[in-house]
């Protein structure tokens, strides 16, 4: 996955949301890993929060960040499994304009190479809402590293060739009426 060093790097503003009933900032290893990797890549950490496993509470924070011009991308960690408490994908579906099916598919393909068939338990997903990219990763530190290191690091780098998500950002709101 080539990076064209002749192109200008354009930092994006990324918010990190940890979905957990048990973690606080001090115990949020996956959120911390994301925050560190985001800033190490040259991007700006726009916000970082923890929210309980509650679909409406998650959706409320997503709506807030979607409406915030200082947030270009939201990456969540946690709540993507199949248990009764795992409601992150349902919360995302409440706000998404468009899903990016390839994100979840690629995540599970990469994950399969590391954890085998256990990857079917992940409902990782990506999408767009109100011109903001949204990505939901599982809560394990390994999954967060895989999602960032193997996918998002490249797609959020404006120099990544042959294409990347950053170059599409100015066009994400084309379908909306002009008064937005």
TrEMBL record:
<feature type="domain" description="MoaB/Mog">
    <location>
        <begin position="15"/>
        <end position="159"/>
    </location>
</feature>
<dbReference type="GO" id="GO:0005829">
    <property type="term" value="C:cytosol"/>
</dbReference>
<protein>
    <recommendedName>
        <fullName>Molybdenum cofactor biosynthesis protein B</fullName>
    </recommendedName>
</protein>
<dbReference type="InterPro" id="IPR012245">
    <property type="entry name" value="MoaB"/>
</dbReference>
<dbReference type="InterPro" id="IPR036425">
    <property type="entry name" value="MoaB/Mog-like_dom_sf"/>
</dbReference>
<keyword id="KW-0501">Molybdenum cofactor biosynthesis</keyword>
<dbReference type="Pfam" id="PF00994">
    <property type="entry name" value="MoCF_biosynth"/>
</dbReference>
<comment type="function">
    <text>May be involved in the biosynthesis of molybdopterin.</text>
</comment>
<comment type="similarity">
    <text>Belongs to the MoaB/Mog family.</text>
</comment>
<dbReference type="GO" id="GO:0006777">
    <property type="term" value="P:Mo-molybdopterin cofactor biosynthetic process"/>
</dbReference>
<dbReference type="InterPro" id="IPR013484">
    <property type="entry name" value="MoaB_proteobac"/>
</dbReference>
<comment type="pathway">
    <text>Cofactor biosynthesis; molybdopterin biosynthesis.</text>
</comment>
<dbReference type="InterPro" id="IPR001453">
    <property type="entry name" value="MoaB/Mog_dom"/>
</dbReference>
